[in-house]
Amino acid sequence: MRFDDIICSNAQIRGLERSIYTDKVIQSLIFEGQPGTGKKTIANIYINALMCISEKEKPCGVCSGCRLFSSGNHPDIFEIDKGRKKSVGVEEIKNLVRQAVIRPNESNRKVFLIHDAHLMTAQAQNALLKLIEEPPKYLSIILLCENIRPLLETIISRCTIIPMPYLSVNSIISALSKKGISGTSAEIAAQSANGSMGKAEAIATDAEYLKRRDELLEILLTAQNSKTEAYSRATEKKDKLSDMIMHWQSFIRDAILFKGGEIDNIENVDKIIKIEKYADKFSRDELISQLEAVCDAEKRMYYNAQSTMILDNLMAVI
Ligand SMILES: [Zn+2]
Question: How far is the CA of 111 from the centre of ligand 1 (A)?
Fold first, then answer.
């Protein structure tokens, strides 16, 4: 892939591309964005361009640097991944720092790529900080993270931060159509993806996604007639609680949007009749209370509250 392939590129990404052709390559970079927003894709294009030894457009795709990059075995690229662990530990970072003094072999530059950098322990960050403060001239340190907040201020202040571009619903729909995905499933995926192409693609290519959503939404609609029936169905789907909360949130938000006449922003575009019925049944304030209860349930899940307790609380409001 090349820089031209990036959907919705922005000034910062174009600046990054230009920097490759100068002797002012940015040494410490953070790509920040939620999963599926293109951090890895853009970082890979950038790293490939850094490894490219062509005098013309980078990455050229044919030089020895590009070929080594594509093989996944470029000796000047070092990647750290938390793997199955919950965090990126200090030992991994220390090993990386030890590699820094060795000059690149094949290319003019050496790259350290740290995935899930927001999950580095404080010790790991401190070990990295020394390197970020005074990196060897040939080294580029690239951090991929969902959110920069967990990073030390001293790291953030020494890095150039590239936030991932937020993709509009229309640009996701057009990107999906280039991949052969169109129609209602593309529209629902684009509306539900929160600006993330990766998420949209995952939704649109998952044949069971809509079926699972329908089953979970049906529980919310059943609750309007029989709370006991809804409660028992929800208990059966306890292992899907996180998806249930996500779809309920989205449906109730749609009902609020419908009431306010903002039909264009509705996520569940194929459920418009049910959304209308639901919106008619409740006042705006009641819908907002419902949405707050569902958001609260999401928070409780995050703090590992028991699923039966979460369901009890939800059913009291829905
Ligand atoms: Zn090349």
Answer: 16
pLDDT digits (tens, 9 = 90+) for 86-144: 899 999 999 999 999 999 998 889 999 999 999 999 999 999 999 999 999 999 999 99
Burial 132-163 (b: 16+ CB within 10 A, else e): beebeebbbbbbbbbebeebeeebeebbeebe
Tell the CATH superfamily of the 3-163 domain: P-loop containing nucleotide triphosphate hydrolases (3.40.50.300)
> Which single residue is written with the structure tokens 């959503």?
213
- Residue 290: strand, helix, or coil: helix
Residues 6+ apart with CB under 8 A from 214: none
**CATH class of the domain defined by 208-317:** mainly alpha
> How far away, in angstroms, is 20 Cα from ligand 1 center?
12
Place of tokens 């999906």: 176
Expressed in angstroms and rounded, the spacing between residue 53 Cα and the centre of ligand 1 is: 5
Domain ranges of the chain: 3-163, 208-317
- In the reported structure, the alpha carbon of residue 62 is separated from the centroid of ligand 1 by a whole-number distance in angstroms of 5
